[in-house]
Amino acid sequence: MKQIQHLLLCVFCVLTGCQGSDSGQEAVSDRVRAEAHLKAGRYQEAAWAFFRAEDTVRAEAVLDRLEGILESSPVLVEAWVGMGISENYIATFSDSVRGFFKVAASDPEGPVEREVAVYRLDRLLGFGMTPMTLMRTLRLPDGRTVKGSLNYFVVGAKTADALGLKTVDQPDGLIFLDAVIGNSDRHVGNWMIDGDTGDVIAIDHNRTFYHELGWTWWKRVQTVGDPSSIRVIYHRLKTLPETAFKEALDGWIDPAQYQAFWNARKVMISYLDGRIEDLK
Prior knowledge:
By secondary structure, the chain is an alpha+beta fold. The chain has helices at residues 2-16, 30-39, 43-52, 56-70, 113-125, 172-181, 218-222, 231-239, 242-249, 255-279, and strands at residues 76-79, 88-92, 98-103, 133-139, 145-152, 157-159, 191-194, 200-202. A hairpin with a 5-residue loop joins strand 2 (88-92) and strand 3. The longest helix is centred in the C-terminal third of the chain and has 25 residues, at 255-279.
């Protein structure tokens, strides 16, 4: 995974002109990077870096702080001018934290509650790709107060499309995430690369948990190129008790969707067990 992140960061730097490190230069530690992100008000990035540094206590404390900010009253709400089917807005909070707000029911094929479900599952399994997402109401510029999903906006990240990347450039971690969540809508406009770290950022998850459609998960899990790259996440998927998954997803997807997810999980485990065994 780290090799893939380094490659993607190199692509980002070539295309944007950022200054990367020479191959012989010592890498900045995750802990130092986390402190720098924290000082800059980039709380989600700081939390991810603390998790990589195995400082779970600091990571959780930062996420608690970020959740409080995203639940507070924004200082500015503006209409999103980018592409998309849903009705979307950008909300700015204290410390210049920004959030991407997706109005509930504005996409009839994708309930916004699934955005929260994906974030909770990402956090449970440790993918570290989906920014914090929560449900809240927001007063829009036209005076309406509406319900929707709000996810942390990663400043400095660019879409794969903007970087000239293609679907075939997706790293194994992202492919596996989409298999786990049964994603029916992954394209080069809704995965991103953080220009500072090379981290892959996964966004736009309201059209997920379509496990009744085999191509959303079975086809994907078969295209994971190097199962060893997802070994830690896969181990959590396999060994965590079902109560942990139910706690993470209860209330965010309906029982039929949960059962389809759970059935797909069993098949993925059986398949990946065989592939990982072959690598030994």
